[in-house]
Amino acid sequence: MIIEAHKNWYEIERGITGETLEAFGVHSASDEWLIMPYDTGERSRKMIGDRDFRFSKGAKTCLYHAPELDNNSSYCFLVEGESDTMRLWQEDIRMCLVYPALIHSR
């Protein structure tokens, strides 16, 4: 389940609907943390205070992608973050991937 404050933030700041968040399996762990599932674990995003992201312990690096991929597509978009993937999915672009190691390397 996604709390309303998280849904509202994504709708206002990123143009991503609650339906899209749910389609991607995104859910709230608390008022402070939002969880984005990956094939090999979870990535948490801090929604209150300083921006922070964390992968679940033992999670392996993998591509983040839409709930269903169009394997017959002749193209694929490699984008910066999960919200970019979700936003394109809303626009019916189904071949969109994120490589998380590129997102916030320090």
Descriptive terms for the model:
single chain, 106 residues, alpha+beta, four-stranded antiparallel beta sheet, three-stranded mixed beta sheet, 3 helices
- The global form is globular
User: What order do the strands of the largest sheet run in, or round the barrel if closed?
Assistant: 1-2-3-4
The major pleated sheet works out as: 4 strands, antiparallel
Radius of gyration, in angstroms, nearest whole number: 13 Å
Strand content: 15-25%
List how many beta strands DSSP finds: 7
| Total domains | 1
Ranges where pLDDT stays below 50 over 5 or more residues in a row are none
Discrete helix count: 3
Could you give the distance between the termini?
A: 31 Å
Order of SSEs: HHEEEEEEHE
Q: Helical percent range?
A: 10-25%
Task: Give the overall pLDDT as a whole number.
Answer: 88
Which structural class is indicated by helix and strand composition?
alpha+beta
Walk me through this protein's architecture.
With 106 residues, the protein is an alpha+beta fold. It has one domain. 25% of the residues lie in helices and 24% in strands. The protein has three helices and seven strands. Strands 1-2-3-4 form a four-stranded antiparallel beta sheet, with no helix packed on it. A three-stranded mixed beta sheet has the order 5-7-6, covered by helices on one side. The longest helix has 11 residues.
What's the structural blueprint in terms of helices and strands?
Layout: H1 4-14, H2 18-23, E1 27-28, E2 33-38, E3 41-46, E4 53-55, E5 64-65, E6 77-79, H3 82-90, E7 96-98
Parallel strand pairs: 6-7
Antiparallel strand pairs: 1-2, 2-3, 3-4, 5-7
